[in-house]
Amino acid sequence: MLLDVERVRTGYGRLEVLHDISLHVEQGEIVTVLGPNGTGKTTLMRLLSGVLPVWAGQVSFDGTDLGRTTPEKRAALGLCQLPEGRGIFQTLTVGENLDLGAVSSRRSGAELRADRDRVLGVFPELAGRLAASASSLSGGQQQMLALARALMGRPRLLLIDELSFGLAPRIVGDLFTVVRDLREDGVTFLIVEQQASALRVSDRTYILRNGRNELDRPSAELLDSDELVASYLR
Ligand SMILES: Nc1ncnc2c1ncn2[C@@H]1O[C@H](COP(=O)(O)OP(=O)(O)O)[C@@H](O)[C@H]1O
Ligand SMILES: [Mg+2]
C-alpha cells in the first residue's frame, strides 16, 4: 500500500473538518475523492502535504509515518502536489515555473535538463513557450504547466486538487488522458474533485461528505449509479 490514511482527524484551530477519515491508495492506482464544495477535499490535501497536522489517527506513505515527516521530506519521498488554484507564478516565465518544481531536489544540471525534456515531451504545447510569461497562457495551458511543474518533482504519488477547475470539458478530458499516460510511466494518483467526470479516469472513488467518507467503490460502478447522485443530494 502506497498511501494509508487511518481514522484521521484534522482541521483549523478548534474547528474539526475531517472526522475519522480512512482511505488508501495502492501503487499504480488512480483514486478519486469526490465531494461537493466545502466538504474537506482541500483540507485532506493539506493534511497529506503536511500543511495541517494529524490530530488523531495515522497517515503513512510507503511505510513512513507522515505524522513525523516535514513537508520538504515528503516531497523528497515522492509525495508531490498540484495545489488548488494551480499555484502557478503568473509573473514568472513558463520555464522558471517548471524549474521551481525541482527546487527541493538535489539534481545536477544535466539531470534537471533531462527531466525538463521528458516533461516537455508530455506537454509539447509548453515547449515552444518556455520564455513566455505564465500569465500569457490559456487556463488549460496553465493547468498543463501546473501538472508539468509537479512532474518535475518526480512524483511517486501525485495529489491533484481539482484538475477540472474552471476548464472546458474537452480540455479536462485531454488532461485526464495525460494522467492515464503518466500512470503507465509509474505515477500513482490521488485526485480530489467536485466533478464526476473524474470517475472516467480513476479506478476507485471515495465519496466525501461533510468531512466523512461515505463510500468506497470502483469508479465504473459509480458512473451510472444512483448512489452517487444520492450522495450529492442527501
Ligand atoms: N484556512 C481555513 N480556516 C478555517 N476554516 C477553513 C479554512 N480552510 C477551509 N476551512 C473550512 O473547512 C471546510 C472544508 O473546506 P475545504 O477543505 O476547502 O473544502 P473543499 O476543498 O472540499 O471545497 C469548510 O467548512 C471551510 O470553511
Ligand atoms: Mg477545495
Q: Which helices and strands appear, and what pairs or packs with what?
A:
Blueprint: E1 3-12, E2 15-25, E3 30-34, H1 41-49, E4 56-61, E5 64-65, H2 71-77, E6 79-82, H3 94-100, H4 109-122, H5 124-127, H6 139-152, E7 157-161, H7 169-184, E8 188-193, E9 204-209, E10 212-218, H8 219-223, H9 226-233
Helix pairs in contact: 3-6, 4-6
Bound molecules: adenosine-5'-diphosphate and magnesium ion (MG).
Fold and architecture overview:
With 234 residues, the chain is an alpha/beta fold. The protein has 2 domains: 3-78 and 155-233, P-loop containing nucleotide triphosphate hydrolases (Rossmann fold, 3-Layer(aba) Sandwich); 88-154, no CATH class. The chain is 36% helix and 26% strand. The protein contains 9 helices and 10 strands. The chain has helices at residues 41-49, 71-77, 94-100, 109-122, 124-127, 139-152, 169-184, 219-223, 226-233; strands at residues 3-12, 15-25, 30-34, 56-61, 64-65, 79-82, 157-161, 188-193, 204-209, 212-218. The chain has a 6-stranded mixed sheet with strand order 6-7-8-3-9-10, sandwiched between helices. The protein has a 4-stranded antiparallel sheet with strand order 2-1-4-5, with helices on one face. Helix 4 packs antiparallel against helix 6 (139-152). The longest helix has 16 residues, at 169-184. It is globular and about 50 Å long. The two termini are 32 Å apart. The mean pLDDT is 93. The protein binds adenosine-5'-diphosphate and magnesium ion. Magnesium ion (MG) is lined by residues 41-42, 84, 161. Pfam families: ABC_tran (PF00005). InterPro entries: AAA+_ATPase, ABC_transporter-like_ATP-bd, ABC_transporter-like_CS, BCAA_Transport_ATP-bd_LivF, P-loop_NTPase. GO terms for molecular function: ATP binding; ATP hydrolysis activity; branched-chain amino acid transmembrane transporter activity.
